[in-house]
What we know:
The complex is a heterodimer.
Chain A: E1 11-12, H1 20-40
Chain B: H1 7-16, H2 23-42, E1 49-54, E2 57-63, H3 66-85, H4 92-110, H5 114-133, H6 138-169, H7 182-195, H8 202-207, H9 213-234, H10 239-258, H11 262-283, H12 286-317, H13 333-346, H14 353-369, H15 377-404, H16 418-436, H17 439-442, H18 456-478, E3 485-486, H19 494-535, H20 537-552, H21 557-573, H22 578-595
Antiparallel strand pairs in B: 1-2
Amino acid sequence: MKKDKHEELMELKHDAVPGYRPVFLVVFAASCAYMAYILSTPAF
Amino acid sequence: MTSNYLPALVFMLGGLLIPFLRGKAKSIYMMLIPVVGFINLLGLPAGESMFASFGDFNLVLLSIDRLSLMFGYIFHIIAFITVIYILNFKDNVEFVAGFFYAGAALGTIFAGDLFTFFVFWESLTVGSVMLIWSRKTRAAQEAGLRYLLVHAFGGLVLLAGIVFHYTETGSLAMSQITLGNLSSYLIFFGIGINCAWPLLHPWLTDAYPEATIGGTVFLSAFTTKTAVYALARLYPGTELLIWIGVGMAAFPIFYAVIENDLRRVLAYSLINQVGFMVVGIGVGTELAINGACAHAFNDILFKGLLFMSMGAVMYRTGKINATDLGGLYKSMPWTCLFCIVGAASISAFPLFSGFVSKSMVMSAVAESSHIPGQGILTAVWLVLLFAAAGVFHHAGIKIPFFAFFGHDAGHRVKEAPLNMLIAMGMAAFLCIFIGTFPKFLYNVLPYATDYEPYTISHVLTQTELLFFSALAFALLLLGGIYPAEQRALNIDSDWIYRKGGKAAYAFLANTLNPLNTRSESVVMSVARGTADFFKDAYARIYLFISVNFWLAQDIKGKRLELKKQRLYKQLLEGVFPIGVGAAIAVSFIGLVFALT
């Protein structure tokens, strides 16, 4: 088995890319509203 | 009665010859076993049976119907693919154990009575434990032992249920059982352990990632699927299964997201998928049972494919943690491609196998929810929808992303060996083929069906779900909210057993050990005193008689004391004429006789 040098991490963090936190929050809020609307329709 | 062979024995006995072969002959022989088994199976049409006498029992070793045949087909297919996958390994124990295990699974699904079913069910445990121990690491040994304990317990529960069931009904038939009396619950619970129901599941996530690379592929195919088969055979339409299945589908998602070991992620994912099958069996309609069986068929293929791809990664890099992997798509492009096919299938992308079976279960739940009084099934449908999104999240995206993309861990390795690629390619082909031409799968299901998965409603619902799930993953990752992969042990419900077991041990140690010590001291002091007495009892008795005799002769004082000492010494040393010794012995025996 051939192995090159590689990094072994204790923790693989996922740092935020600037600007995406607000995008996430907006999409999350919109999704919740959309789901609430769907669940409240008589067809469901 | 059939003239064909018992499918189980083709594998179990065939596997025993493997250690005697070498080189290419060995490889060809290993591939021939499932091929011969499959040809043998094709000669066993529905309705065939095979009997054997055991004492007063007439055991049904083989009973073929559409349900068992479907599982028989897929067990042979996955055995053949797995054998190709492990050809480059050298461990005979793993080979023999794998074939024994596959044979036991076939014996279980073709068993026509509960006793035969139990015998093969326990054989499954033997084969699977050997596969775990074959890895020969300390962690594997310990996990295998825990696996053995859990399944031995489950087997005893099942056996107790079968014995009570026979006592109550006088029948060992493998027919539907209604939950109600003790025996029905014991059998239900015994099967539930192998099915990895919530709280009974830690054996799976504990042991599967510790098995050998090929062993995990074998394990993912048989134990839980034979349990699904048993539930479909014995407990179809049992409402309790719906709630158990919902729990199985939902809870593993959270563990899978935070788990670092990618084979353990797949183990959680396995429980999640079996949850869909259990729900289908609980709903119990023809569509639901068909959906459960079809999903078992597909899961064996795509879960096997995912385990094979992670096994190939592990084989080449020696690593399996997300923290140690990443960027392998450059070095292992084919493995990456096959992994993505497995991920798309398990996520139920249209044109992949998971789509045509998962939508059957979802449709069956949705249809049943419209029946008056069954409105609660709408909640079940919603949870399954959430679980389907979760599957895409952890198995569909996480597995390929952290192994082949994500951060580059720096591994520059060769592509997986050719035999592994061929095996993965076969599984990937079947995933796409079944997803594209589902009628081939529908033709082998227990009930005839004209179900059409590719309706606009199904495709749109599923595609929408998958894209929103992908969007959620991307935004969670980019927003820095996605949990970090950590080199850590996650506490699962085995915490209850581990801590409970330690507490029970401490309680027993603190109560039974002092009692044991006290009892020992009492018994030992009595024993010691008795032994001390009998050590020179004859001398004391004879001395007592002699002293009284001397007192009668008026021998007193110092002279009496000297005579006593001399006699006692002589008695202990045994320096007496034989006649005196015999007289002492007779006196002693007489005294004992008088006392008793």
